[in-house]
Q: What sequence folds into this?
């Protein structure tokens, strides 16, 4: 896009913003008149046209005099009134010799309307500093604060108010406003245009103003909330936190200071706190605007900024303890500091725009919309006009800034997706690489074995007994290595489904004996006795001899590896034409989780128990597939701490048949792909800006070396001298990386890594191991324990920094993707409910204002709890959840009235704690997808029953219910499916905390009952 096109586009944006603002004003048809000598003739004005008359002009002014009420003990005619222009300050008119904002006075204006038209009129008084009373034809109809002749009897309260009245029989409306001010040092009196019109017109304008301010505040609040979520769940980008602060202060200022002053209408805290909060919020917002930009990159400013930051935040803090007079004196300081912040922020943005206009087009739009808003706001405030609130250019500005953030996250998501695809391609090439490498190793290995065998055969009689034994050991180890290489080669052939078996008649007993001899050295080192209990007369089987050796070797090697002491026995029996070979050990055994994934490729069980590595985690997977190729089965049973039993079957052979049998493997690929692994998740906690590293080493010197290599300004380091100490520190904060030595007393680095992997996945908490050995078996042990990477000692500074950066970057990339998913899910939940609630409030505003106020109170209460954003990984008091539900149900009851019935059965449960947002999604689901699906509505029951050992929580409805098929799919997470996300999330969080999730019962036409249980705290 050319620069001229960009300029044209931005000019069009400014025109659109200005025209839309003007059209918005035209909707309310403001009509300015010229009041002369305190009189205004409106007899030719038709109120039915919907015009709003701004009562600007010359009013009669009576300084230091009351015209109405019990205090009007003198006749107004005795003192000729002065004329004062409204809106404007009374400082000079109150005391010509010494202008002052402090004192009291009365304003009077006579309106002449058509006496033939009897109708009700309204007047809207937006701002009279700082207390006032409104009299119409001698009657007190409205006031704000309490006026008095002295400061002691006076109460300040500058809030907008309105009232409705009729003209007298002659069509005259006499307006008298009595005002007093003893606290505000600015221009006092009537400082904003007073609006006059029909009752319907003024009410319409007021509703529109309230609605737009609420809408703007909610939008700004939503921006603040999701920015805060992204900050908490993400990589702690400080500018996100400042953007959340900017949106929050903007939302607060909208309801605090603009037009209707909605905050004070509900929570009025006095004029002092009005001044304090407004100016504190103003200063905080100005600083947040500056902090959202890359202002530190500006030359010279980086030196000034620390001083500016201290002064700005210090002034903001001091403001909370000052009185209005003192705050008024600081107005020039507020304006100066905010002007500096705005100027520096704009310069920073412009500098960024100069470098790349197209890439920062949204940022430029945000800047123009913000400047447009500020210019109009300054013009109106200086002129004293009081028009209906217009927030849309500010909303566009905040929205464009938010879009800049999301654009960055989408780019990060695309990069993460590309990285995942690259890793998947690398994983696909891994097995092929291992197979090719194994082929390359086999030739030299066979040469070594053949030469060793030749030397042993030729020189046996001349060699010492020790040399003969050592050569036999070399041959045994070589044959074992050959089998391991065969496993690697078989990975690809089994995956491609093309291995062929050469079946012959073979005997199992000698095969087992040969494999035991190969593994005898490993068993003797560990004091493990292997016994072959298969009788020599055991009938032969039809099988591929090489494959059977491979199967037996893998099973026996696995038994030796995980048996520290005791016995390994091999037995066999025949049944119904099949031979069953049983390998039983007294090792460490396996838990249920390990049994589920035992036969998956590259799986290893509890390497920390033996610290012996003899493969790549392929043996059992390949063995199972080879047994299935023989049309047999491989089964396992195990008890943790007592041992394991593997049983595989082969077809018994007819001894008279000696022919070879070739059996193609047709379904190995399908069976391999049907296997899946389970993953565990961990709750992400907040962390500091720098990468948080937990370093574990029992040698203090090694810790000092690492501390010297990793400077504190780049890394947040925490040292631990043992694995147990590291585990104790694990829950104190969120860690980016654990760096651990392998060889440590009591708990090795392998064991520590294994324990960490039980709670965190590879991306949730990476582990970098330090090892003094670089042998393949040591490195393999670390990876199988769950480490992400390793560094050999002595440590090279550049190498360890590069590996730390790679591991922390991967973690941050994955977390960015999860954070976007969370923000998207939150956005999907809120909007429809917000708009429905606001629509209900709008409807009530015409028929029941009290009920509307109650609805808005419950709605604000709901949003306050909903956006409270408790730690989703922790527990909160159940009363917090119930308060949220009560507000939600109140709003839904207003919407659906008699169609919705709610029954509560709540035991005393003050001490109960639950995960945040667990019951509310169930209630919302019951209403939306249950009872409201029926024309007549229905009933929901919320029950909390406290028992001795557990608390039963139930949400039940009599809605449309579900059939069995839908019920089975309800808690299943499927790709490209957006339904049921809330139930799935709730179910998973309950399981993580308490080990049990949701129990759902439902029947079509009857309803649905959802129950979950948590332990009782009593």
A:
């Amino acid at each position: 896009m050319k620069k001229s096109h960009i300029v044209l586009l931005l000019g069009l944006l400014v025109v659109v913003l200005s025209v839309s603002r003007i059209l918005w004003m035209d909707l309310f048809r403001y009509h300015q008149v010229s009041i002369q000598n305190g009189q205004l003739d409106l007899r030719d004005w038709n109120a039915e046209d919907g015009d709003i008359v701004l009562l600007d002009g010359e009013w009669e002014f009576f300084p230091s005099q009351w015209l109405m009420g019990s205090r009007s003990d003198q006749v107004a005619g005795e003192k000729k009134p002065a004329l004062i222009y409204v809106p404007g300050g009374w400082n000079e008119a109150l005391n010509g010799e010494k202008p002052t904002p402090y004192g009291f006075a009365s304003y009077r204006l006579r309106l002449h309307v058509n006496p033939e038209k009897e109708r009700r009129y309204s007047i809207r008084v937006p701002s009279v500093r700082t207390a006032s009373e409104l009299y119409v034809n001698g009657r007190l109809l409205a006031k704000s604060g309490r006026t008095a002749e002295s400061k002691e009897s006076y109460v300040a309260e500058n809030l907008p108010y309105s009232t409705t009245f009729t003209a007298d029989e002659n069509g005259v409306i006499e307006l008298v406003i009595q005002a007093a001010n003893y606290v505000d040092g600015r221009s006092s009196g009537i400082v904003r245009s007073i609006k006059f019109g029909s009752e319907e017109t003024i009410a319409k304008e007021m509703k529109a103003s309230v609605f737009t301010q609420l809408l703007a505040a909610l939008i700004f609040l939503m921006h603040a909330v999701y920015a805060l979520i992204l900050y908490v769940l993400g990589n702690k980008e400080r500018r996100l936190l400042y953007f959340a602060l900017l949106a929050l202060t903007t939302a607060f200022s909208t309801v605090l200071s603009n037009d209707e002053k909605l905050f004070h209408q509900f929570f009025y805290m006095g004029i002092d706190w009005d001044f304090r909060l407004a100016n504190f919020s103003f200063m905080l917002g100005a600083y947040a605007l500056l902090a959202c930009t890359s202002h530190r990159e500006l030359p010279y400013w980086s030196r000034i900024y620390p001083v500016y930051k201290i002064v700005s935040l210090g002034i903001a803090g001091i403001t909370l303890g000052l009185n209005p007079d003192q705050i008024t004196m600081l107005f020039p300081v507020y304006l100066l500091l905010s002007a500096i912040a705005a100027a520096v922020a704009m310069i920073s943005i412009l500098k960024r725009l100069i470098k790349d206009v197209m890439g920062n087009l949204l940022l430029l739009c945000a800047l123009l919309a913000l400047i447009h808003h500020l210019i109009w706001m300054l013009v109106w405030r200086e002129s004293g006009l009081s028009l209906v609130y217009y927030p849309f250019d500010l909303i566009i500005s905040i929205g464009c800034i938010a879009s800049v953030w999301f654009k960055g996250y989408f780019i990060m998501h695309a990069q993460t997706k590309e990285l995942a695809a690259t890793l998947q391609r690398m994983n696909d090439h891994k097995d092929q690489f291992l197979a090719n490498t194994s082929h390359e190793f086999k030739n030299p290995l066979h040469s070594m074995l053949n030469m060793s065998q030749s030397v042993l055969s030729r020189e046996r009689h001349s060699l010492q007994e020790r040399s003969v034994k050592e050569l036999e050991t070399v041959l045994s180890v070589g044959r074992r290595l050959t089998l391991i290489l065969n496993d690697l080669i078989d990975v690809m052939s089994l995956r491609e489904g093309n291995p062929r078996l050469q079946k012959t008649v073979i005997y199992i007993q000698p095969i087992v004996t040969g494999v035991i001899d190969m593994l005898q050295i490993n068993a003797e080192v560990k004091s493990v006795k292997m016994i072959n209990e298969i009788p020599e007369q055991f009938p032969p089987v039809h099988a591929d001899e090489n494959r059977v050796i491979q199967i037996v070797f893998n099973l026996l090697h696995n038994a030796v590896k995980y048996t520290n002491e005791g016995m390994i026995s091999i037995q066999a029996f025949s049944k119904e034409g099949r031979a069953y070979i049983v390998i039983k050990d007294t090792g460490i055994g396996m838990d249920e989780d390990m049994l589920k994934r035992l036969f998956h490729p590259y799986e290893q069980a509890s390497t920390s128990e033996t610290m012996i590595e003899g493969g790549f985690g392929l043996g059992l997977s390949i063995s199972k597939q080879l047994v299935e190729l023989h049309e047999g089965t491989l089964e396992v049973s195990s008890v943790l701490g007592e041992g394991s039993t593997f049983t595989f079957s082969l077809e018994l052979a007819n001894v008279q048949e000696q022919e070879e049998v070739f059996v193609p493997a047709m379904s190995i690929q399908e069976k391999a792909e049907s296997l899946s692994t389970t993953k565990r998740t961990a709750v992400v906690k907040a962390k500091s800006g720098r990468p948080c590293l937990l370093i574990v080493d029992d040698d203090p010197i090694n810790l000092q070396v690492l501390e010297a290599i990793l400077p504190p300004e780049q890394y947040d380091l925490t040292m631990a001298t043992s694995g147990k100490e590291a585990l104790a520190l694990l829950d104190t904060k969120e860690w980016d990386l654990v760096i651990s030595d392998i060889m440590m007393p009591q708990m090795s680095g392998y064991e520590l890594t294994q324990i960490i992997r039980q709670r965190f996945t590879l991306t949730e908490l990476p582990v970098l191991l330090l090892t003094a050995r670089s042998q393949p078996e040591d490195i393999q042990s670390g990876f199988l324990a769950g480490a992400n990477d390793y560094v050999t000692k002595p440590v090279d500074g550049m190498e360890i920094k590069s590996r730390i950066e790679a591991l922390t970057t991967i973690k941050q990339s994955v977390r960015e993707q999860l954070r976007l998913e969370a923000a998207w899910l939150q956005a999907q939940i809120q909007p429809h409910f917000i708009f429905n609630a606001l629509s209900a409030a709008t409807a009530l505003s015409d028929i029941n204002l009290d009920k509307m106020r109650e609805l808005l109170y419950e709605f604000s209460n709901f949003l306050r709890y909903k956006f409270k954003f408790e730690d989703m990984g922790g527990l909160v008091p159940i009363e917090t959840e119930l308060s949220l539900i009560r507000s939600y149900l109140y709003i839904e009851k207003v919407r659906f009235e008699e169609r919705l019935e709610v029954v509560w059965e709540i035991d005393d449960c003050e001490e109960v704690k639950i995960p945040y947002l667990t019951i509310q999604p169930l209630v919302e689901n019951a209403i939306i997808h249950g009872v409201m699906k029926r024309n007549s509505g229905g009933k929901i029951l919320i029950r909390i029953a406290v028992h001795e050992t557990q608390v039963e929580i139930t949400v039940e409805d009599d809605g449309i219910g579900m059939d069995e098929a839908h019920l089975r799919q309800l808690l299943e997470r499927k790709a490209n499916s957006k339904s049921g996300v809330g139930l799935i999330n709730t179910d998973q969080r309950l399981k993580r905390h308490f080990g049990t999730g949701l129990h759902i019962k439902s029947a079509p036409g009857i309803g649905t009952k959802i129950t979950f249980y948590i332990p009782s705290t009593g």
The first helix runs from residue 3 to 26. Residues 476 and 518 are 5 Å apart (CA to CA). Residues 607-615, 657-688, 821-828 have pLDDT under 50 and may be disordered.
